[in-house]
Design a protein that fits this description.
alpha/beta; Glutaredoxin
Length: about 350
């Protein structure tokens, strides 16, 4: 009798499972049709379709959703333009189809705009900002004590944007989607943009070749190469990438436009002018050290000594200035050629454990 009950229970369970799989495949097929018929593979959800495809089991697929405004928002437009590149790339790579071999779920991309009917949905998610990209999986769909569905997510499954965001790139969104879906799809290249860069590259080569033929003697001059190398080192050491990414000001100004702080007191921060100034000191100091090799070409002994003392004094002044700037940023920084006053002097018997 017990075996009969167990067999019937297993049979009923298999029927329920088959029905759920049929419904799951049906929902997936419906989303695939929407992705193929929509622009860039992006599905526009409303409150009804969102609850059906995102908030209802079974849903054996992932959905990447952009929560944003539809109009009167430049930042929203910028995020949207980058997001559709990722959606289009996944569709072209058949990312909206499940990978049975590696057992990876299909990934769909959608957008949910702010409106009166969708506002309760977006408020329930408690986003950190008003523009967000959320990667949802079947595990994210949970139920409270009343049996009501809700999305549970962590910081790793969300990208948030606000007016201070300066890293709104499709490549970053693509890396985010690939990491969560465990895919390695490439970002689709814009053909017009590729053609533009190709023409620009060809023109650049042509201009460079013409300039080389017309100004060959000037371009091969050692002075030009040394000067150009110094300029490149100054710009690169000055933190040009840091300044561009963070919109770093040249210095701190007051309301009248006067500089009130040129060297940033924070150890992990700097002003643009400070970076260029320090890189110039490094390049000048290094060049002065290297210039000792040129002193042998000075025939007059007096001039030789005079130039040596001038160079040595300049190096010392530059090092002292750099040391002073470092002390502004880090009070503890204080290298010296001499031991501190409290250090015990004498034989190894008096050693304080600094040698071994």
């Amino acid at each position: 009798m017990s075996n009969f009950i167990i067999k019937n229970c297993l049979f009923i369970y298999s029927l329920i499972l088959q029905c759920s799989l049929i419904n799951a495949h049906q929902k997936g097929d419906e989303l695939r049709e929407l992705a193929l018929s929509s622009d860039y593979g992006l599905i526009v959800f409303n409150a009804e379709t969102y609850n059906k495809y995102v908030m209802t089991h079974p849903r054996p697929y992932d959905v990447v959703i952009l929560y944003t405004r539809k109009s009167n928002c430049k930042l929203c437009e910028k995020v949207y333009d980058e997001f559709i590149q990722v959606s289009d790339s996944f569709r072209d790579s058949n990312g909206f189809k499940p990978d049975m071999i590696s057992r990876k779920r299909a990934v769909f991309f959608g957008v949910l705009y702010y409106s009166e009917e969708t506002l309760p949905i977006i408020k329930s998610l408690k986003f950190p900002s008003r523009i967000n990209i959320l990667y949802t999986t079947p595990k994210n769909l949970q139920f409270n004590k009343l049996g009501e569905p809700y999305i549970e997510y962590d910081e790793d499954h969300i990208l948030s944007y606000n007016e201070r965001s300066n890293k709104i790139y499709a490549l970053k969104m693509m890396e985010f989607a690939n990491a969560k879906s465990q895919r390695k799809f490439p970002l689709k290249k814009n053909q017009i943009e590729f053609l533009f860069y190709f023409i620009f590259f060809v023109c650049l080569i042509f201009i460079g070749f013409s300039a080389y033929n017309n100004f060959k003697q000037f371009l091969l001059s050692p002075v030009v190469w040394i000067t150009g190398s110094m300029m490149i080192i100054v710009i690169c050491m000055g933190g040009i990438v840091y300044n561009i990414l963070r919109n770093t000001p040249f210095a701190k100004f007051d309301n009248n436009g006067n500089i009130v702080e040129f060297i940033h007191t924070g150890r992990k921060a700097q002003y643009a002018g400070e970076g260029i100034f320090m890189s110039c000191l490094f390049v000048i100091g290094g060049t002065l050290l290297y210039s000792f090799n040129w002193l042998n070409q000075v025939p007059n002994k007096t001039k030789h000594y005079f130039a040596s003392y001038i160079i040595l004094a300049s190096i010392i002044l530059i090092i002292k200035l750099m040391h002073r700037i470092y002390r502004i940023k880090s009070k503890w920084y204080g290298p010296s050629f001499f031991p501190p006053n409290h250090y015990v002097k004498g034989s190894l018997i008096n050693d304080q454990g600094n040698s071994f």
